[in-house]
Every structure is written in structure tokens, then in C-alpha cells.
Amino acid sequence: MYEEFWRESGDAAELVIPGWQTMSYFSDVTNVCWFLEPELDQQVRRLHRTVGNAAVDGYHVIVGTGSTQLFMAALYALSPDAAGDPSASSRQRPTTRSGNQSCLLGRQCFCCDLQSYPAVTDFLRSGLFRWAGDASSFEGDNYIELVCSPNNPDGAIREAVLASEPGAGGKTVHDFAYYWPQYTPITEKADHDIMLFTVSKSTGHAGTRIGWALVKDREVAKKMTKFVELNTIGVSKDSQLRAAKVLGAVSDGYEAKVVGAPRLFDFGRRKMVERWSMLRAAAAASGVFSLPEETSGFCNFTKETAATNPAFAWLRCDGEDVDDCASFLRSHKILTRSGAHFGADPRYVRVSMLDRDDAFDIFVRRLSSLH
Ligand code: PMP
């Protein structure tokens, strides 16, 4: 969806990197995150100040190969075993930690993106933590709760459901991949301990593989940095510079001194409003689908009341003879992801709202023809 915007933005987000540049592992050895390009650090802070969606003063910026890597880094950093020498922690693991760490998900057992959080949590069979399912049914103090808001797949605004006693072991990670004005009203400047963001959803540059974490606590920031160091010895500088350029172009659009600069969030919101209204009309025309109720709120960024326009549609097949919505739609040449993948009823499917115009148009046309 965003290709059209970037195509029309001319050279605003263009970057040339000569052969001799970005060769070292290091970016700024005085920074906690020593592989973070200073330009990316500045542009991340500038964009959050422009949009007002997250606090940046007093926070450390940690860069990752997508926010996926930072999610893993956060689990590592918040697990008690990760406190020091990783070889020592693996020696202790079998006796002191087996099974009693947990990684949890926000309410209602909706996992994020192709059930990827449980998969990402468990694929290395870490002794530091394990996936424990839905946070609302968890009891205990030793947990890491993952809050995804707006939520993937249903776009709902979520808050943490577990409140740990002071001094207990409960920790929270906020995934704010979709907390941008094209998807939802910006109702507050979030200031949680660890907040994850990514260019994949904010500007559409998923292939650049750049995410960032805003981290309050210096020790946690150091451990997250250590994880990325052990995992990939840093993050592609070329990608960081490209992400910095792209984020800079977005902020330029909202600074009065850059006359006529293209405005990404205006474009994104216009597109999403249009697409959601097309989708709602198609669902109504067919009569056999339902969609989540539209909610709205006052957006502190646009200074207007705005509806939520989730990046995914959480579509329900209402027909009595359809109990597997994904198969039904597949037989009509519409590819979706079944609700079953998210721990939900297979009468639900998740549909991406961010495809190119031509694909989206075909999708709504096909959907409205089903009765
Ligand atoms: N968080 C959420 C909520 C997502 O939906 C996704 C990807 N779909 C990610 C994180 C992963 O982002 P990245 O491409 O930065 O790894």
C-alpha cells in the first residue's frame, strides 16, 4: 500500500552509500547500543516527538533486525538468568530455571502475526523462558507479559492484564508496531518500560528489517544490546541509514519549514479510511460476513476525532453452513489466515488491509459477490 506514497515522494527518501562507507561494526562506542547509527537515533526520537505516540526523553533507543529480534532481546534481558555471563546462566539453567519462567500474551489468546510470538519464543527451547499462553488465565508473579496494541489480528486497543506486586518478578513488553496515526487515534504519549516499534508497519519498509525499542532502564537496555551482539554482532548500518532517511522524510512532511513535503500519515489514513469503507460496504452487500464494530477517539496528533482503521480485518463468516471461513474463502480465490492460527474460532479469518490497490480492489469485489 505504501509503495504508491514512496514512489511519489521523489528523492525525499533516496540514499546513496559509497563503497567505503558503513564498513565498521561500530557506530558509537559511547552509546549503550554501540551499533546504533546516531542518525537513526535522532530520527526515531524526532518522529516520536512529532507524532506524540511515545515518550523518548530519558529512554535508550536500541535498534534491531526488525522488532522481531528486539522481542527476543527483551525476553532475554528480562529473564533473571540473563543477568550476567551467558555461559554461567546456561550452566545453572536445568536446576534453577526449568519451566518456571513464562512468556505471556495479552488478553484473549490472540497472538501476534501468524502465531509468531509463541514460535519465536519457543523455537530455540530456551531455558530462560517459555511461552505460557493467554495472560488473563495466568497466575503467579514470574512472568513477562506481552501487550500488542493495537492488537494483531483484531486491531483492538489493549492494556496489560497482569499487575505485579512491587518487587515481584512480573515484567511487561509493549509491542506498538501499529500505534501510528494511520491505524488508530493517538490518545496518549505511551511511557512504558519497553516499547517496540518497526518501520515495517509505520512506513511500510518491512524489507529494510529495522525495528527499535525504547527502553527506560539502562541495565535492561545493556542486556538487550548484549543479545543483539551475541546474535548478529549489531544491525546492518546500510539498513539503519535507509530507515533514518525514511523516518526523516516522514517528519519533514510535518515540519512547516519543508514546504510541500509529502505527508505519510495523511496518505495512510486516507487510504485506510477508504479501504475500510470499501470493505464494510462489500461485507454488507454480501450479507454473510461481519466485521468488528468501528471505534473512534480523539487523536492528539491530528487534533480530530478519528476512527480506528486496523491493518488487518478480523472477518467472520456468518453463514450457518460455513464453519471454516478460510477454506470457504480460498475456494473463492481469497487467501486469508484462519482464526484457528490465533487460538480463535475458525469462522474468523485475518485479512491484510495493506496490499497493493489492485489486489485490494479484486479482494473486495470478490467478497461482495459472495452470498
Ligand atoms: N509486531 C507486530 C504486532 C507485527 O504484526 C509484526 C509483523 N507483522 C511484527 C511485530 C514484526 O515486525 P518486524 O518486521 O519489525 O520484525
TrEMBL record:
It holds the Pfam family Alliinase_C. One of its GO terms (biological process) is amino acid metabolic process. GO terms for molecular function: carbon-sulfur lyase activity; transaminase activity. Its cofactor is pyridoxal 5'-phosphate. Keywords: Pyridoxal phosphate. The keyword 4Fe-4S does not apply. The keyword Nucleotide-binding does not apply. Coiled coil: none annotated. It comes from the Eukaryota. Residues 1-370 form the Alliinase C-terminal domain. PANTHER family: BIFUNCTIONAL ASPARTATE AMINOTRANSFERASE AND GLUTAMATE/ASPARTATE-PREPHENATE AMINOTRANSFERASE-RELATED (PTHR43795), TRYPTOPHAN AMINOTRANSFERASE-RELATED PROTEIN 2 (PTHR43795:SF111). This is Alliinase C-terminal domain-containing protein. It comes from Zizania palustris (Northern wild rice).
